[in-house]
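Appendix B. Worked example

We walk through a single record from start to finish. Start with the input: the chain for Lipocalin-like domain-containing protein, Pontibacter actiniarum, length 192.
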Amino acid sequence: MKTTITSLFSLLFASAFLVGCEDCGSATITEPTVADTEWLVYSSGDTAVFKDENADTVWYVRTGIYAQSTPGDGYNVSDECIEKLNTQIANIMEDTREAADQRQPYLGTLILSKPDSLLVRIGVGTQATWSIDTAAATQEKEVNGKTYTGVYVLEGEGTKDTDVKNVYFNKSDGFLYVEFNNGRKLELIEVR
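Next comes the structure step. The output line below is what the pipeline stores for this chain.
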């Protein structure tokens, strides 16, 4: 994890150097703290093992982590000079099954680090995304016979069969439970 964080900060420093120019000066980047990056949950080489609705084992692996600088509050990408940049980092986990018709949607975590706040979002494929209020009350939930604490319970709003119905997520283990309107589901067994 330390190598990943160091690499990300190096990339961000390089992007700030490229954004700055003689006329504009250098940009100030809001870098995420180590505590902020814990919301991304999954590290390089991690595998999340789930049980699906048929009690089959489903393996999700981290296929990418993406970092980029975004214009800070009050700035736009079309501005000639951007003096403040926020940092956005996204982490993607994907189902490893070969048959496309069996694969569940990817799972994503995202943070946006601003000078005075941190935005945390999670998503299930292209079907649904949620903002997580990190100060909100959490619940205790049992998934696959294991009790998890600090759980955010999120409900989908879509009505199509393939839309997400419910998601349980926590900061230490990530996606614990994902249920779709058509009865498909993922229940966490472990993160390796």
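Two observations about the output. The helical segments are 2-19, 34-37. Residues 31-66+84-191 form one domain.
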